[in-house]
Amino acid sequence: MSNAPAIALDERSSRTFFGHPRGLAYLAFTEAWERFSYYGMAALLVLYMVNQLLLPGHVEHVAGFAAFRSLLDGAFGPMSTQALASQIFGLYSGFVYFTPVLGGWLGDRIGQRSAVVLGALSMSGGHVAMAFDRSFLLALLLLIIGSGLLKGNISAQVGSVYPPDDEARRTRGFAIFSTAINFGAVVGPLLCGFLGERYGWHVGFGAAALFMLGALATYLSGYRYLPARVERKARNAHAPLTTEDRKIIAALIGVMAITVLAYIAYYQLANALPIWIQAHANLSAGAFQIPIPWFYSIDPLASILSVPFLFALWTWQARVSGREPSALAKIATGSFIAAGANLILLAAIALSPGRVLWVWPVLYCAAEGVAFMYFWPTLLALVSRAAPPKINATMMGSVFLTLFVANNLIGRIGTYYEKMTPIAFWALHAGIGAAGGLLMLLFARTAGRILEAKA
CA-CA distance, 190 to 349, in Å (whole number)? Predict the structure, then answer.
């Protein structure tokens, strides 16, 4: 956890990982194991709360839960078990993505490597605590703190291992990094979901803890290939923000705000979808009954499989038009695809007289996986490239504010699930995604030109 000067950029770049700096490999594999633990736990979380933790005979054993529920009831009113689970999910997943702002601020001061190590330790403790009913709230708190220290700082390090003018490789580097995220997100729900359903919820949570410790070990093994601090433009790092810098910051905030809509259309697959599948889907594939947490693996698997096709598509578009689609155009496309995914569920409901065949939610999750690859790595690469160096890590942490806002809204919207018909609920999310795409296209023609001028 040294605060030594950053490793020289040419030294980091001299060792390659499929044509990319070697440090990218350690960052990607660290994130793969960390996401394995996170998504493995998240795939179980809502079902665990609805089917066990929040039921009489269990909820009384959770330390501090009576006071916590009293706060929620005071803020949102009395809630059913499903609504309470949705609200807790929204608050937890929201604050997981709020604290990276604070973590990025701290990382700019103590060094990104030190912040990532502290975050991994906290998250490891959180996953261990999740294996027991009594420490449920403590587990969520440790995971929130740890994610705040790790997320923004490790993402900032991805951008920092490339030269400032190497935008093409940096964008693809973030896509590789996101692929590692999706690898962990595929395997985590499969293994933790299987263990949770076969041997009990806490066995699944315990597996997540082991793989978070694996993430820490991976990061430490690549310590010397990673910058202690993100200083891609060190000679200007302490200069005051200029008027141009402030315009860029304002434009980036505008992009982040609009991307909230894409994320809302995308991420109900972790909250309302498992409940909907449990009540309305036919999960029989011959003699095999598909575990519900496995659906959480489909969208990251689709993201992984889509990468070579998207790279080829963007290369073809560059040959035809002279350049790849702009970052804002890609984000808008992702929002439209997320909207279309929700229309798949509408079609399934309309065409199915009884329970919906499992193929339909598979198609929904797969389409959401493609949408993710359009808007999320693109947003990370855009902020890494355009954010002023003085606050680069802080701005990378601020990207996760979009997820803080979106996940709190997702949790809140999910509390209305029982009050709406399934068609109305999924149609609402299709409309939200389409609105995000339209707003991003309009923004690209106005204030967004400030960011495209930086390309």
Answer: 26
